[in-house]
Amino acid sequence: MGSGEGHFCIELENGTKLGGNDLGLEKEPKTIAIEDAVKVLLQGLGEDINREGIKKTPFRVAKALRDGTRGYEQKVKDIVQGALFPEVGLHDGVGHAGGAGGLVLVRDLDFFSYCESCLLPFQVKCHVGYVPSGQRVLGLSKLSRVADIFAKRLQDPQRLADEVCSALHLGINPAGVAVVLQCLHIPFPNPDSKHQGWIKALVSSGSGVFRNKNSDAWGDYMGLLKFRGVTVEKIPTRDSMGNNWCPSYASSEVVAANPGMVAAVASILRSLGEDPLRKELEETPGHFLNWLINFRNTKLNGFTCGIKALLKHDEECSHNHQQIHSELNLPFWSQCEHHLLPFHGVVHIGYLCPEGSNPIENSLLQSIVHFYGFKLQVQERLTRQIAETVSSISGRDTMVVVEAYHTCMISRGIEKFGSNTATIAVLGRFSTDPAARAMFLERIPNSATSGIL
Amino acid sequence: MGSGEGHFCIELENGTKLGGNDLGLEKEPKTIAIEDAVKVLLQGLGEDINREGIKKTPFRVAKALRDGTRGYEQKVKDIVQGALFPEVGLHDGVGHAGGAGGLVLVRDLDFFSYCESCLLPFQVKCHVGYVPSGQRVLGLSKLSRVADIFAKRLQDPQRLADEVCSALHLGINPAGVAVVLQCLHIPFPNPDSKHQGWIKALVSSGSGVFRNKNSDAWGDYMGLLKFRGVTVEKIPTRDSMGNNWCPSYASSEVVAANPGMVAAVASILRSLGEDPLRKELEETPGHFLNWLINFRNTKLNGFTCGIKALLKHDEECSHNHQQIHSELNLPFWSQCEHHLLPFHGVVHIGYLCPEGSNPIENSLLQSIVHFYGFKLQVQERLTRQIAETVSSISGRDTMVVVEAYHTCMISRGIEKFGSNTATIAVLGRFSTDPAARAMFLERIPNSATSGIL
């Protein structure tokens, strides 16, 4: 980090606090340009930019984007200089160890980066190794810090791996550097509303003794990664992979682009120090808007008829003995209105129904979930809105649990990679009957192992 | 964070870079006092404080300790103010949801804290929930930021949970706050050198509707944590737990304390803003020195005889056909000389032996590992030294893999919680025979699932 960027960094550590310190960043032309662009986007989504929940969103987005791309202004030599320690190699004998050979591998470093195809953050698990030479070893944390410089830019996985690899090679001049990245991209909404895991990319890059993937050095490196689901066979070759891991390429919708919104995204790219005409960025405004437009503020929905039909059904048999129906793991996509970043996960719906009555159709519940998901939202409101709507259909007694992974929790200041958020709304009997709540909670499968979050 | 602390924070982001910006922190009396104390400790360990690897260690330690306890100077209200968003509750009907009830639970937040009993960092997985009231919800990331204020102090698990809980309750005035912490403490060396997992503590704290652990609200909260290995039954009561989860209480060694070193640790406590006479801190210097003294620079060891005996054996039968012997998962403890923080893990040793010959005794290999582990070290050197020593016993052809978890990787700037480091040293035939290396690597069990790292 250049020393001139120090001030900027403090503010990002402080989150949204608007103290005296924030005035510097707030007044910078780049920040103001991004704020203006975000206002155009919010208005394009049909939002009132003075609404309480989103009035500070333009500033929050500007701050997060500038922090998330701070790598453009950082230098590798600032990090590695003073962190190379003298360390002898083997005293005698044939072999490799210490400062003269002997693989050093730091595994399981978590980062996030920004996808250059769609501007959404993606997660990176980084395994970076090198073989020392010149009787010098690098402080272990510096491998992480150098990787972070390149993660904090607009990236695609292969380029990120290549840049980390070559920067370390130039910076510390070792016998070789090897980088393997396991990247996870949030899925785009799909027409079938099926459960869909994260999009994965596995890439590698090597220099020096690791330049050839058939080298002995690669064999050692992969031998130490074998338990992380990484094998040589799984890493695709550069040719087979192409440049389109990002789901925005497969997204069917093509926005009838609002030229103002397209120009706003291009303006954001320029403010981050990028060239919107760079080949890989040409389609980025369209891709980002293809994502964002899903969350426009619309009153259209497809379940009004369904509600009426079911209400009738409910009235007919509301005095019978009741049982809990549940519909679990309905996928949803939403957009955090505080940060204009995705949150994504599953909704579990439980409701009491007269015994023997037909449950509400899965497709209707999924429509309700999508209707309230595809908006600028907060998870608490989403949960309540789904519960109220299902209640109006099923006849009052409803419980909704939403489990979500918030991109803003990894790509903003706190960077809590494994964290996730659960919210509950209860109506009618569920609010007074803990046993009914417990029975419903029991049915919810383990999101940690089901791969949904 | 007070705005006056901003400058301090930049430096910590920058790692060890000594630029113009560092002069502020470097000149502060608190920093200098810690540096002086660390020099006393290093000299007490028999180290030359001008040695290349450790000459900047006093400053690195001072910086890390001040950053790791920055919570003393941070205020909850700076974080929550401006982050409470209006959010209505249910529009009608009986129930809880949105800004008027309806549990919000953020799970799996990773932190580290400093153990007040021994001054070593410990890991915290935090699950923090609350029930909104007053039609206001808190930005989700603020739950993490508030918890971090109290983690960045000298703590014990129960007090940490209580402080996070009561601070959130006062700060956002909800219907209730619930906190569950899963804490992991590095094990102290044990006389039997057995594999030993991390020391675990599971604690909880509740306010408002969560004050009573038999309340319905706790039932809902635990229902959402059920898959994280947390159940109501497992959480010990305050009375049964006591205050001594820290393994320093069970550590058998009692240092014939060097009064200068004791005074140095007390001086560090004072520089961090603590009172060394506070009841919980009275034994801390002794506990910390009980840990640290394991790593004094000594030439004593118990395996010289063993070496001679085995060398003889080797000479007798060095021309026979050879096979790979391996000794896996030998535990080690060491202390990073750059940061005066533990690294800890397992050593795997492979060597070629004439077929039919007896392998080197496990106890001798373990002694070698301990001899080189219990020092101020770097992992690369540790790996090389073990390999060279085993080679001198077994007759040249040796391979050593060290897998370690570095406390400095979680408790300093980069905070990479899951990361771990593997190093390899190869001598003799292992350096020229990739198949032999691969065969040995194949035998190493998965550290990620064996719970060793």
Automatic annotation (TrEMBL), chains A, B:
List this protein's GO terms for biological process.
Answer: folic acid biosynthetic process; tetrahydrobiopterin biosynthetic process; tetrahydrofolate biosynthetic process
Where does the GTP cyclohydrolase I domain lie? 34-187, 263-444
Kindly state which reaction or reactions the protein catalyses: GTP + H2O = 7,8-dihydroneopterin 3'-triphosphate + formate + H(+)
Q: Which UniProt keyword terms apply here?
A: GTP-binding, Hydrolase, Metal-binding, Nucleotide-binding, Tetrahydrobiopterin biosynthesis, Zinc
- Note the Gene3D superfamilies from the entry: 1.10.286.10, 3.30.1130.10
**InterPro entries per record:** GTP-CH-I_C/QueF (IPR043133), GTP-CH-I_N (IPR043134), GTP_CycHdrlase_I (IPR001474), GTP_CycHdrlase_I_dom (IPR020602)
Q: Could you state a single Gene Ontology molecular function term? A: GTP cyclohydrolase I activity
User: Which pathway does the UniProt entry assign to this protein?
Assistant: Cofactor biosynthesis; 7,8-dihydroneopterin triphosphate biosynthesis; 7,8-dihydroneopterin triphosphate from GTP: step 1/1
CC per GO annotation: cytoplasm
Cite the EC number: 3.5.4.16
Q: How does it assemble?
A: Homodimer.
| Physiological role | GTP cyclohydrolase 1 is the first enzyme in the biosynthetic pathway leading to folic acid.
Q: Which family does it belong to?
A: Belongs to the GTP cyclohydrolase I family.
Q: What is this protein called?
A: GTP cyclohydrolase 1
Please tell me the species this chain comes from: Hibiscus trionum (Flower of an hour)
